[in-house]
């Protein structure tokens, strides 16, 4: 035995990963600052401020009677609900433990050492994490106006590129690429690279788009065999704690993902709740409306405070506050949790999840007080 065995032997690409920085949990802040958890507001993780839909809670509790059994590994009922709602065959659907899982499955199925993935600067951080975990090369393309520069991303695709990640709307910046531009990109990728390059269109915030911004991305899945569209139940559907998402792609790509998927990746409670939530149009409409009003409330306040912000298409707003680390600390002292985004290359900015009206007000009052202090 020699001393050289005294370090864990991980591949260099794993040791190099900077772990995901999640929004601070309410209980943790309460412990750290000696605050009453009930007095804390969390606007840090793009969760739904309405809580989970009552319909989903009931369905989940009913399913809680059969937890000794493994979940349905094929998610038959959930997939048939999705199939009906989106008009695609069940064989085109992959269920995920959150849509994060779908992103991981794409990386697991397609990336390896010697391959690369393309994504945008300031895009969702999981694209980098999933790529790095496979030992693949990541090609980060500079953002344009805080959003995806699809022209530059097209040019950045290399001979070894197998995946392009696009978040639309993007997190943490809230930017949005209109449908014609995405479609043109898909056509350009096909013309140049055929099916060698898979495009992941991550639509985690799709349900917050205004009606005139909406488009049928699932129709593109029918046209492009190298496209996968991912959606989540974590945001507008209010089920972040249960972890459900899904991807829609043609059968050949879906089959590849299924090969690397854990058999029971979506649990029984999550499947039951998702089926109910997906059909709860009333809840979704309320979530959309509340978000629209909350966004206006925050943006008006930022205008009044003369703070720059990025017009948002999601359920959060990215705002430039200057010394974001200090302002974040001052907000925490006042029991307000938001998200610093220095790790996303935005050290002067904070990302604020849109909350209930009184939560937005609490945040605005705290921020105003901090900015006006001598
Ligand atoms: C929140 C988010 C997701 C995934 O969330 P899940 O809870 O894993 O479904 C995916 N993409 C983006 C851009 C997000 O902001």
TrEMBL record:
Catalytic activities? L-histidinol phosphate + 2-oxoglutarate = 3-(imidazol-4-yl)-2-oxopropyl phosphate + L-glutamate
GO molecular function of the protein, one example? histidinol-phosphate transaminase activity
UniProt pathway annotation: Amino-acid biosynthesis; L-histidine biosynthesis; L-histidine from 5-phospho-alpha-D-ribose 1-diphosphate: step 7/9
Superkingdom is Bacteria
EC class (word)? transferase
Cofactor requirement: pyridoxal 5'-phosphate
Protein name, UniProt field? Histidinol-phosphate aminotransferase
Q: What is the lineage of its organism?
A: Bacteria, Pseudomonadati, Pseudomonadota, Betaproteobacteria, Burkholderiales
């Amino acid at each position: 035995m020699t001393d050289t065995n005294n370090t864990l032997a991980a591949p260099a690409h794993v040791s190099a990963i900077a772990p995901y920085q999640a929004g601070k949990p309410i209980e943790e802040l309460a412990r750290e600052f000696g605050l009453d958890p009930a007095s804390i507001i969390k606007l840090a993780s793009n969760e739904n401020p309405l809580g989970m839909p009552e319909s989903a809670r009931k369905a989940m509790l009913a399913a809680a009677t059969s937890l000794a059994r493994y979940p349905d590994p094929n998610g038959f009922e959930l997939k048939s609900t999705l199939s009906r709602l989106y008009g695609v065959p069940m064989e085109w659907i992959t269920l995920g433990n959150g849509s994060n899982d779908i992103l991981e499955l794409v990386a697991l199925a397609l990336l390896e050492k010697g391959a690369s993935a393309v994504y945008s600067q300031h895009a969702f951080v999981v694209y980098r994490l999933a790529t790095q975990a496979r030992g693949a090369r990541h090609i980060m393309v500079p953002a344009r106006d805080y959003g995806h520069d699809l022209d530059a991303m097209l040019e950045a695709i290399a001979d070894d590129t197998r995946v392009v990640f696009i978040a639309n709307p993007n997190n943490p910046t809230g930017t949005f690429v209109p449908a014609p531009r995405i479609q043109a990109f898909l056509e350009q990728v096909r013309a140049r690279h055929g099916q060698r390059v898979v495009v992941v269109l991550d639509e985690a915030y799709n349900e917050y788009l205004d009606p005139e911004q909406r488009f049928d991305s699932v129709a593109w899945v029918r046209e492009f065999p190298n496209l996968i569209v991912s959606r989540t139940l974590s945001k507008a559907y209010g089920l972040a704690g249960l972890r459900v998402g899904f991807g829609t792609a043609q059968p050949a790509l879906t089959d590849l993902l299924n090969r690397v998927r854990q058999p029971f990746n979506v649990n029984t409670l999550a499947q039951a709740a998702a089926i109910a939530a997906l059909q709860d149009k009333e809840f979704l409409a309320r979530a959309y409306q509340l978000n629209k009003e909350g966004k206006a409330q925050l943006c008006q306040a930022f205008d009044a405070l003369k703070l720059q912000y990025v017009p948002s298409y999601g359920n959060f707003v990215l705002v430039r506050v200057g010394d974001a680390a200090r302002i974040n600390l001052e907000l925490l002292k006042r029991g307000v949790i938001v998200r610093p985004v220095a790790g996303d290359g935005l050290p002067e900015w904070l990302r604020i999840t849109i909350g209930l009206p009184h939560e937005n007000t609490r945040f605005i009052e705290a921020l105003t007080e901090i900015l006006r202090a001598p």
